[in-house]
Design a protein that fits this description.
2 domains, single chain, three-stranded antiparallel beta sheet, about 25% strand, alpha+beta
Length: about 100
Amino acid sequence: MDRRPDSGPARPGRRGDRGQLGRSAEFRRLWARHDVRATVSGTKTFRVSEVGDIVLDWNTYPLPGKPGPVMLVWTAEPGSADADRPQLLASLHATRLIN
């Protein structure tokens, strides 16, 4: 998220952008709800003896409702060993179930 001020030498014309958004009825309706919440994120290393360490990034996204359910999403860098290892682990476990 960009936290720089809306105007100034580094961001000429930014106030104009905000003014145009304010003309949109949909934007005003969404802005009035004030339901933007912070996303919590991090990185976790799972130690898995069959395939080695798996390092995954995680993010939480708030869902509607109270007291505040969240969706937890795990991701790995595409094409990395961390992306391949969960698939390898799933294959190993599937093979064990069949045998």
